[in-house]
């Protein structure tokens, strides 16, 4: 019995399909990997912002309802509304990404369905050819019916290739079917994820609208309290000058001593702190060995909080045509929070100023950090402190029930913006 050689279409069809499907799977498998990083980052941002909102909600509830605390309530609620708006923007980004992922998954499912059909058609064609040639019924007879040894050897090679192709084709159909099933399950999960995000977006937008109403209400109340606010600002400015003089005196005295000893800066201590920290750092912070190397990397002086007062000259948020100057930043935090040194250094001054309560000044070479509004202090002048070591606890104004520290950063006699030096996020 003579058998014709398999047609060219049959001989090339299987390797071609394997190559096409392999490229298809490899190409599409790359997309989730790249998108996953962005998706993970967005999830982290959403969770971080949710924590911040919860923290702000807690601080707002703690703030007294008295008239004296109206401005503090306004500052907290305004920050809360801004943070929630950031949260809504992140959720919208996640929704956009979810739509893209759903569309891509649907396209992959459609492509896999087409592939399965074509693979099945190709497999059926191969099987029909084999049946016509009686390859599956009696392969031994197919070989023995050859006219000579060379033809028999060629038929043996053909049967071997046919069997390999058949198994590859069947395996490819099975793997493609399994991949299709996984993608269908993934599509259901992604649609549910999108639904959850949509629900979250609706809830957050509703809460944000309520917060904006509260902000407007507080602005209205503050307009009727303008005279009192101006008086408070004048008092604070006088005490601000006292704090400024204290800092410059400490720096000037230290520079004078350095010149007298022929040194440009105080050497970093080689011995451990002489005071025992009230609380050990929660984790090792990855910062450089010199203060200057840590721009944008320094830890916050409190564990939780937000910047309630920005650095520099600025317009008052509620009083028109009134400019205020802040030599540092104000950080609103929770009652009883510990205040920590942002970097290792030497305590140069522990003082008291009525408006600023207890004040601690720490030297870090040519840099100085100042911590004000401390209820109590756990270090003394001359002590060496470590990064993140507790130096005291935040002062709480009982009339307003607000807790806020004032933090300044100086380089020699020049004020710097502390926000540029601490980490972007506190929690």
Describe this structure in words.
The protein has 427 residues and is α+β, with helices and mostly antiparallel strands. The chain has 2 domains: 8-222, Helix Hairpins (Orthogonal Bundle); 238-420, Glucose Permease (Domain IIA) (Distorted Sandwich), CATH 2.70.70. It has 5 helices and 13 strands. It has helices at 8-62, 70-132, 139-144, 149-223, 226-260, and strands at 306-309, 312-315, 323-326, 329-333, 338-340, 345-353, 357-364, 367-377, 384-385, 390-394, 396-397, 402-411, 414-416. The strands form 2 sheets. Strands 1, 4, 5, 6, 7, 8, 9, 10, 11, 12 and 13 form an 11-stranded antiparallel β-sheet that branches. The longest helix has 75 residues, at 149-223. The N and C termini lie far apart (82 Å).
Question: What topology does this entry show?
Answer:
Layout: H1 8-62, H2 70-132, H3 139-144, H4 149-223, H5 226-260, E1 306-309, E2 312-315, E3 323-326, E4 329-333, E5 338-340, E6 345-353, E7 357-364, E8 367-377, E9 384-385, E10 390-394, E11 396-397, E12 402-411, E13 414-416
Antiparallel strand pairs: 1-4, 2-3, 4-12, 5-10, 6-7, 6-9, 7-8, 8-10, 8-12, 11-12, 12-13
């Amino acid at each position: 019995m003579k058998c014709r050689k398999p047609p060219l279409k049959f001989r090339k069809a299987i390797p071609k399909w394997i190559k096409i499907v392999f490229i298809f799977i490899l190409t599409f498998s790359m997309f989730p990997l790249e998108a996953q990083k962005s998706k993970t980052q967005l999830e982290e941002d959403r969770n971080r912002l949710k924590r911040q909102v919860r923290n702000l909600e807690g601080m707002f509830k703690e703030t007294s309802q008295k008239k004296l605390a109206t401005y503090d309530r306004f500052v907290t609620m305004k920050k809360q509304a801004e943070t929630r708006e950031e949260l809504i923007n992140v959720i919208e980004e996640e929704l956009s990404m979810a739509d893209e992922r759903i569309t891509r998954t649907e396209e992959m499912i459609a492509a896999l369905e087409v592939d399965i059909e074509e693979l099945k058609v190709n497999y059926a064609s191969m099987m029909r050819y084999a049946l016509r040639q009686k390859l599956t019924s009696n392969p031994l007879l197919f070989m023995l019916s050859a006219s000579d040894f060379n033809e028999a050897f060629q038929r043996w090679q053909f049967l071997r290739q046919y069997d390999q192709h058949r198994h590859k084709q069947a395996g490819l159909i099975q793997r493609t079917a399994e991949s299709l099933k996984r993608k269908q399950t993934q599509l259901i999960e992604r649609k549910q994820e999108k639904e959850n995000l949509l629900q979250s977006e609706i809830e957050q937008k509703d809460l944000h609208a309520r917060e904006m109403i509260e902000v407007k209400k507080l602005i209205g109340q503050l307009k009727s309290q303008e005279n009192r606010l101006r008086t408070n600002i004048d008092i604070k400015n006088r005490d601000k000058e006292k704090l400024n003089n204290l800092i410059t005196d400490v720096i000037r005295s230290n520079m004078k001593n350095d010149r007298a000893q022929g040194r440009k800066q105080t050497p970093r201590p080689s011995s451990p702190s002489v005071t025992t920290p009230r609380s050990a750092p929660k984790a090792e912070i990855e910062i450089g060995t010199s203060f200057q190397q840590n721009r944008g990397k320094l830890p916050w002086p409190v564990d939780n909080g937000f910047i309630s007062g920005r650095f520099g000259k600025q317009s008052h948020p509620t009083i028109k045509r009134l400019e205020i100057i802040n030599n540092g930043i104000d950080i609103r935090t929770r009652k009883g929070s510990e205040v920590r040194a942002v970097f290792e250094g030497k305590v140069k001054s522990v003082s008291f100023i009525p408006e600023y309560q207890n004040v601690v000044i720490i030297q870090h070479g040519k840099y100085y950090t100042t911590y004000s509004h401390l209820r109590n202090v756990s270090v003394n002048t001359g002590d060496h402190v470590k990064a993140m070591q507790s130096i005291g606890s935040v002062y709480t104004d009982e009339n307003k029930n607000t807790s806020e520290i004032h933090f300044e950063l100086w380089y020699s006699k020049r004020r710097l913006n502390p926000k540029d030096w601490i980490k972007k996020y506190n929690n």
